[in-house]
TrEMBL record:
GO biological process terms held by the UniProt record: nucleoside phosphate metabolic process; ribose phosphate metabolic process
Coiled-coil positions: none
Source organism per UniProt: Lasiosphaeria ovina
GO molecular function per UniProt: ADP-ribose diphosphatase activity
Name of the featured protein: NUDIX hydrolase domain-like protein
Length: 210
């Protein structure tokens, strides 16, 4: 990862012919609804879905376990051009052809954070943005065993053009820290991350006994 020298700046937005698009294409779906009425729907479709895994991407929910520190999770902050903002997310990435979701999760987590991890669980296939896209993903929960003598985060293995900041957050502070990030200028917390943290907070503070 090269050293940051300026804030990202969008210089132009233009129409993109689908024949030139590398990652997504735009399609029109024609269908008949539940009452027999013919309808249409515009949908963005990924061009890169891995056949073996059957999913586009994985996100890595994670817990860092240290012998003398409270359990924590690692989040990433990166600039996302579609939003022209920095997003706060869990590490995530596309599944390569021939990979399983588990294999992609371990590889991507190592690349983005520098940590080795072990897979704890894998979710069913989930819709990423069902009103706009057929994109899907799986949430892979991973665990990182951090050595007692660990003082610095390991070196990331980022590709050219990737600028990803990693932040370790104690799980007890997870929800409150995301709320604070959301107040920052030009910063948006990813929905799936906030939903997870909000669910944790709700389970701990609700009046319903659940």
């Amino acid at each position: 990862m090269s050293t940051k020298t300026q804030e990202p700046l969008i210089t132009r937005v233009s129409d993109l012919p689908t024949s030139e698009a590398r990652w997504v294409t735009l399609k029109k779906i024609e269908y008949v609804d539940q009452v027999g009425k013919a309808r249409t729907w515009e949908v963005a479709m990924r061009k890169t879905r891995a056949a073996k895994a059957g999913v586009d991407a994985v996100a890595m929910g994670n817990v860092l376990v240290h012998p003398s520190r409270p359990p924590a999770t690692l989040i990433v902050i990166q600039y996302r051009p579609p939003l022209d903002a920095y997003t706060v997310e869990w590490p995530a990435g596309l599944v390569d052809e021939g990979e399983t979701a588990e294999e992609a999760a371990v590889r991507e987590f190592k690349e983005e954070t520098g940590y080795d991890c072990s897979v704890v669980s894998v979710s069913p296939v989930q819709a990423a943005d069902p009103g706009m896209s057929n994109a899907n993903m799986q949430l892979v929960m991973v665990e990182v065993q951090v050595p007692e003598e660990d003082r610095e985060q390991p070196q990331q293995r980022l590709e050219d053009g990737e600028h990803i900041e990693t932040v370790i957050v104690p799980l007890a502070e997870f929800y409150d820290r995301l709320v604070e990030y959301a107040k920052r200028p030009r910063t948006i917390v990813a929905a799936k991350l906030f939903h997870f943290a909000h669910g944790m907070n709700f389970a701990q503070t609700n009046k319903y006994g659940i």
